[in-house]
Amino acid sequence: MAGESDKVEKNDILKRDIRYLKGVGPKKQGLFRRIGVRTVSDLLFLVPRRYEDRTKITPIKDVVPGKFATVQGTITLRGKRRLYGKDGFGIIVDDGTGWIEVVFFVKNMQKLFPIGAKIIISGKVEFDKYYHKSIFVHPDYSIIGKNIDDVIAGMVIPVYPQTEGLDSRFIRRLVYDLLKQDIKFTDYVPEVIRKRENLLSIQEAVKKMHFPDSVEEGEKARKAIAFYELFQFFWKLNLKRENIGKARPFKEKGRLSSEFIRRLPFKLTKGQQRVIEEIDKDLVRSVPMQRLLQGDVGSGKTVIAIYSMLRAVENGMQAALMAPTETLADQIFLVLLNFVSGLPLRLGLLKGSTKASERRGILKDLENGDIDILVGTHALLTENVDFHKLGLVVIDEQHKFGVLQRYDLWKKGDEFTPHLLLMTATPIPRSLALTLYGNLELSLLTEKPAGRGKIETVVKLERNRDKIYSWVFRRVEKGEKAYIVVPLIEGSDFSKERGIKDLYSMYEYLLKMKSDNVRIGLLHGRMKTEEKRRVMEGFRDGEFNVLLSTTVIEVGIDVKDATLMVIEHADRFGLAQLHQLRGRVGRGEKKSFCILVMSDKVSEEGRERLRALKKYNSGFDLAEIDLKMRGPGEFLGTKQHGFGGFRVFHFYKDQDIIEKVRRYVGLLKDGKIPLRENEREKLMSLKEKIEEEFYVA
Ligand code: ADP
Ligand code: MG
Fold first, then answer.
1. By residue range, what is the domain housing residue 72?
2. Same domain assignment for residues 147 and 207
3. Ligand 1: residue whose CA is nearest its atom 16
4. Mind listing the pLDDT tens digit for each residue in 580-623?
5. In a 3-state reduction of DSSP, which class is residue 23?
6. Which residues line ligand 1 (CB under 6 A)?
7. Is residue 665 part of a domain?
8. Cα(198)–Cα(221) distance, rounded to whole angstroms?
9. Can you give the pTM of this predicted structure?
10. Contacts within 8 Å (CB) and 24+ apart, 466-470
């Protein structure tokens, strides 16, 4: 029994919040979140950005300023030292070929460096201009025999993605201590495959990914974990896909859908026509449609969604559309009402916030077939939502839902499977979509409807803020409308310390800057839906000509004469999100501007991202760039949304194993790989664990 509870406890460690670790308080917890680490398990699967090889010892006479070096010698001198205007202490290390000074700024540490002790120092060699010599400033070190810090020098050590206030050294320490605890991970790759591929065990791989004996071994370990991860993803996907069943074939185009197209106030673009043809071909088949429609923001996907749903209705079936937020569901519902007014349709809107009595009514009508089209949020996935005869499902902004989750709405059909149309404004590079979504057919909307003005993107430093807003307000006074986006509603002490503007401090600032003709409306996610709608309508109708908002405007707002977009702290947003936000302007004929305001201390990476945005207007180009820069998780925002939950697998680096893993999963499915009984059970158990984390039994 002792062993049993021991095991439970060890697995619990993985799920624990990072705060449970020594030295991690609320502040560090927040910083860890920024690099995607919430739990102990996240930390252990955090991939080092690179390694530093500190196994090679450089003779002190050969160290070069500007380069990393590891030296080993004896402490011969120790004393107070002032450097760069800061007080600290210095030691002299001598290795027989020469000596070098090492300066630390931490107080009360001197006695840790006894004269005569042997020490290893690793770090970047700097140049002391005053004394004209090489010097180490606050390097990593370990004192031989003393074991004060055994992680630090003379090893191949991991360098992690870091963020201000959270350095690699600290992360390394945490990981090192955790690995000493011998935590158990579960993997699902059958032994036959593991042997054939010569994979390290998951246990070994986690250790070696962080602390390999050589840089190559570190990469090999990472790749093994990527294999485990991808295997689990494909296997789960395969379990979900089993028996996709048959769909009821639709008849050729009917009255309702034709009438809808005829009544549209505009002509369909060529792209829209093409996609509609593609969809029509799918719908008449008894194989359920599985189509992903990718179209940049504003390319006109909604019309296609409505058309497809009407195709179901005219065939005597129901259709459902699921959107990721209530605002978006509301928005689509309104558009739908507007477009189909006059057509004989019964519509329903179901959200988490729908009142219980109203909800009961909707569910009853739905079951009886008295609702033709149901629009909603995640609420549609609830168990007691039953359709009478569901013929088609649309999922908007599908990447905001888990890859596996979307199957849950799809399964709401009866003995027949509904046709499925997935839509996204966040383009997924074709190669990625094909690999990861397997059977999905792809449709692309590349052109925007005619008569759209250009958007010029400008990148500015924060210190120009006053100038930026006087420019914006001058234009607003002449009749333009502006969005101003901030990252937070209310700042914390932490963000205030860093001068990050939240909604309220920005509002105060803007009030001081503006003239009487500038009327600012406020919008944020904590407002009630009704309030939000009022403010958005106020902006559309001109009651306000500036809309100061959090990112709630990211999707769904469509104000044709808004031509200015300012995004504060743009370097804190991901590329996809910035692109989405930018898509709020440029909807009318006039030229628009998108001004990205970045911190005066912007990181090189942040700057690069904003430059890409300035250069490229198409979401497809941006997606490719982001994929190259950081792997698929970032652009798709899937770290949080279960894009297979990949933490280690990297689409570019691991392309070589995708096909291989897929093939193995196929063979397994067909029973062509011999399994031990416990392996079979383990694999089948993943059916229940479908939304669970990797490696956590
Ligand atoms: P998205 O692809 O981002 O969902 P929408 O479907 O919301 O884009 O379309 C954006 C705007 O373009 C809407 O106001 C819509 O009515 C309009 N629109 C769609 N198709 C056309 C078209 N063929 N010609 C002109 N305007 C169109
Ligand atoms: Mg849309």
1. 56-154
2. no
3. 300
4. 899 899 888 899 999 999 988 888 778 888 999 999 888 777 87
5. coil
6. 266-269, 272, 295, 297-303, 425, 449, 558
7. yes
8. 11
9. 0.61
10. 466/513, 468/566, 468/595, 468/597, 469/510, 469/513, 469/514, 469/566, 470/513
